[in-house]
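Render this sequence as a predicted structure.
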Amino acid sequence: MLRLTGAGAGAAPRDIARDLYLSYGTVRNYLASAVTKLNARTRQDAIRIATEAGWL
């Protein structure tokens, strides 16, 4: 059974940053980069694409 965490579970970037001991800006940049690389329109769209590809 796949269990999504972080952005996949709908967590806010600030919560992800706190949980991973990263800065908010780093998490925001990583998420934006993932959306761009997947040619997604939104973070939710990027999660869908990555899940369908078997990456999550």
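Summary. The mean pLDDT is 85. The chain has one domain: 13-52.
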